Amino acid sequence: MAAEDAAPAGRRHGRRGRLAWLLAVLALLAAAGGVSIGVGTREVSLPDILNGVQGRTDTLAEAVVAVRVPRTILAALAGGALGLAGAVMQGVTRNPLADPGILGVNAGAGLAVVIGIAWFGLTGTLAFVWTAILGAGLAAAFVYAVGSLGRGGATPLKLALAGAATSIAASSFTTAIVLPRGDIAGGVRSWQVGGVGGATYDAILPCLPFLLAGLSLSLASARGLNLLALGDEAAAGLGARVAWARAGAALGAVLLCGGTTAICGPIGFVGLVVPHLCRLLVGVDHRWLLPFAALTGAILLIAADILGRIVARPSEMDVGIVTAFVGAPVFVWIVRQRRVREL
Q: Which residues form a coiled coil (predicted)?
């Protein structure tokens, strides 16, 4: 019997309901993309957007294609990657607080990139991506190793505490490296806030293979995550190779986080908020939860980018700041839930 049939939450979300939500989410994603292209410091009408898509030489149409379209694509890719990575991390650790930011993965990726820039003269998007993935992987391994120490192994609470400590330490090291380097301080600090402004196709393309690999590994881990939700012993009894299932899913999440952080900087709370919202829509079955987390994460980050352009006109607010405003209250709400207090 599938995990969704055994769980009460699964019975509340039938196939028809999930398909209806899927259509609604896809429509909302298309609408968010259209609004993102049309809204900014200057409004763009639908004819101008169509001119830009068709390659007309109008100046405003050229701006739409050259600036807003790649920015919208990057927001969708980054939001989808972070939402999916958050759902995978929560499944791997069985921790409702798991998030690339809270577990220190984004901070580890950011620290690795800053070390590469400051000490090794790192340049180029592809080099940033490899370095960020290495930093994200080392941070994830370190957090899991520290969280596994002591009695009871890697409990959700110990992983959250280890991740928070790692994130603070990595951020402190990053600041210590950047402070005496005035030549890179401005660019690094702006990147650390997290944003999708200034996106170009040349910057996006090198990240695509890593994001696609992370997407494939994460979606392929859905059945294993369903079994891991039953506990390691039960999963092993049902034929799952627990260590391999956990490692494969974690690798997918690391690829997604590293690729996103390299190009956008550390963006927090998307991976925390999105999985909880998606569970309300489609239940706990990861075969549905993971694709929905990717789509909903894309919508959330596009919407946050749009909001950042509106509230600070004629300037802009970076998307990392907007997601922090949205995610912090959700984080407090999750912590206050009875289930989390009993971890």
A: none
Helical ranges in the chain per DSSP H: 3-6, 8-11, 15-38, 46-53, 59-63, 69-93, 105-120, 125-148, 156-178, 182-193, 201-204, 208-220, 222-228, 232-237, 242-264, 270-282, 286-311, 319-336, 338-341
* One-letter amino acid of 125: T
**Long-range contact list for 89-93, CB < 8 A, 24+ apart?**
89/250, 89/253, 89/271, 90/275, 91/221, 91/225, 91/228, 91/229, 91/249, 91/286, 92/225, 92/228, 92/246, 92/249, 92/250, 92/253, 93/154, 93/156, 93/159
For the segment 67-82, what is each residue's pLDDT rounded down to a tens digit? 888 999 999 999 999 9
Tokens coding 111: 């620290």
Residue with the two structure tokens 């908020």: 273
Q: What is the pLDDT of residues 135-192, one digit of tens each?
A: 999 999 999 888 888 777 777 778 888 888 999 999 999 999 998 888 888 888 888 8
Which one-letter amino acid corresponds to residue 19? L
Measured distance CA(95)–CA(102) in Å, rounded: 11
> pTM score, two decimals?
0.89
